[in-house]
Amino acid sequence: MSAQRPGRRAAPKPSRFGGFKVTRNGKPPAGRRIAGPGDTTTSIPVVQEPLRESEPMAVHPDPLDRPLLDSDPFGIRAALSTPAAPAPVAPPVLPPAVAPVLPEVTLPAAGPVVNHVSQDAVVGAVPPVVEPVVDLAPAPLDLPPAPDPDFRAPEGYVAEPPVPVAVDRERSEASLQRRRAARARLFFWSCLLLAGTMLLGAAALHRGPEWLDGAGAVCVLATYAWAVMARTGGRQVVFSVLAVAIGVTAVAWDEPILRSGAAVLTCVTSALLAVVLTVPARTFLAAVREVVVATAIASIGAFATVGFEPVASTTRFEYVTLAVGFLLMFALVWRFAAGLHGLGTRGLVIVVVGSLVLAVSLVYTELLRSYGGGGLARSGDDLAEWMRSTIGAVPRPLTIFLGVPALVWGVHMRARRRQGWWVCAFGAAATLPVAQRLVNLDTSYVEAGLQTAYSVALGLVVGYLIIRLDLAFTGQRGARARAAEEAHAVRPEPPRFSSL
């Protein structure tokens, strides 16, 4: 055998199965066999065992070929044999249309163009192309819906009456008219009060005729009566006319009992107005402001009280005004503080303690005046004379320890709780003595003013201590906590010149 040349296929290697010969049914296979190198035809054994035929695979019929029923009543076979519809063909995508580019055209020079806004002549100006403005504002929401033509009202159906469009406008106009009327009334009564104060001042300085004090007292009494009724929600016109009638009758008839009665009415009205005209105070400085306002109102009432020239004794006059004033004050506070159910435990303690202090002070004063020993009474008179000669006046203990502290603490508490009105009720112990101070003919105007100033100043100190104790036991601890508590003390209450 020659060596392998390039391009020719190499001879196959001999196999170990090459000595076996396979026949089918003892017959040699058709065709010729190519003997390998060194092999003979007689040396190859013949395998006489026939090949086993493989078993044919079982053919399972198609379930759809089996007859369901005599026919196809539900159309299942027809539905399954129907070919699926072809998928929809998407439309071809067309390229966007491109606007043709037009060549620029130069317009010839035109005459002057006048702008309709500025009326300036522009030579050769071309009016710009303005795009149409589309109003995208939403439709108004207050328009009534369109009626449904297919709506059929059931039996007993009542359609709502249409609301007029000008209802809000009418309401605003009505409220504006009410505010204007209230301002006009306030201006009128303020002018009347100013006129009465000027008349009383001229009478106190002995300038002018003798009837100035009576006329000024009537003006102040009428104004204070209207203010009390306006603040407490009463009948303003009725009580104002009644106050004017009482004042004019007392001045015209010149009877001692009428003058004394008009003076008592003026004193009580002034003290009540001084208390009810205060507003809640979140801080101590605001409470001081309210005390000053109440003292000023009661001081004007003091001049009006003495303007009627009462002839009753000073002690009897003070007791009558204190009794009537506290009775009316508690009646008003009963309305403002919603009765006793809004009083609470602390409010009840305050009312009881205040009543005891008031009763004890009055009883002690009366006993000292009537049954005091010579030495004790003489020592008291000596102390009063020393204070008059040293500081100019003697402060009132009732005002220092009850009236002013109650008023300060009450307006401070009203900014947080309604029961502050019960505390303010004892503020009448500060305003009533101020209004009745000039009735005593032995007291001059300067001494009365100094006595009021000293009593209010010392009472403010006592009130400050009471507020600090109240906040220490029931309030927040720390400066920041107290500042936050003052910021959130916003109990709603009408303004000073509004009805409670």
Helical content (DSSP H or I, runs of 4+): 40-55%
Q: Please give the number of β-strands.
A: 4
Summing up helix and strand content along with how strands pair, one would put the structural category as mainly alpha
Number of helices: 14
**Major sheet: size, sense and barrel closure?**
2 strands, parallel
Strand proportion, as a percent range, falls in under 5%
Rg calculated over all Cα atoms: 57 Å
How would you characterize this protein structure?
This protein is mainly α. The protein has a domain at 255-487. 54% of the residues lie in helices and 2% in strands. The chain is built from 14 helices and four strands. The protein has helices at residues 76-81, 167-204, 212-232, 236-253, 256-276, 284-307, 314-336, 344-371, 374-391, 397-414, 420-425, 428-435, 445-474, 479-487; strands at residues 21-22, 46-47, 112-114, 121-123. The strands form two sheets. Strands 1-2 form a two-stranded parallel sheet. It has a two-stranded antiparallel ribbon with strand order 3-4. The termini are far apart. Mean pLDDT is 75; it is low at 113-123. This is DUF2339 domain-containing protein.
Fold topology:
Blueprint (H helix, E strand, L loop, with lengths): L20 E2 L23 E2 L28 H6 L30 E3 L6 E3 L43 H38 L7 H21 L3 H18 L2 H21 L7 H24 L6 H23 L7 H28 L2 H18 L5 H18 L5 H6 L2 H8 L9 H30 L4 H9 L13
Parallel strand pairs: 1-2
Antiparallel strand pairs: 3-4
Describe the structure concisely.
Helices cover 54% and strands 2% of the residues. With 500 residues, it is mainly α.
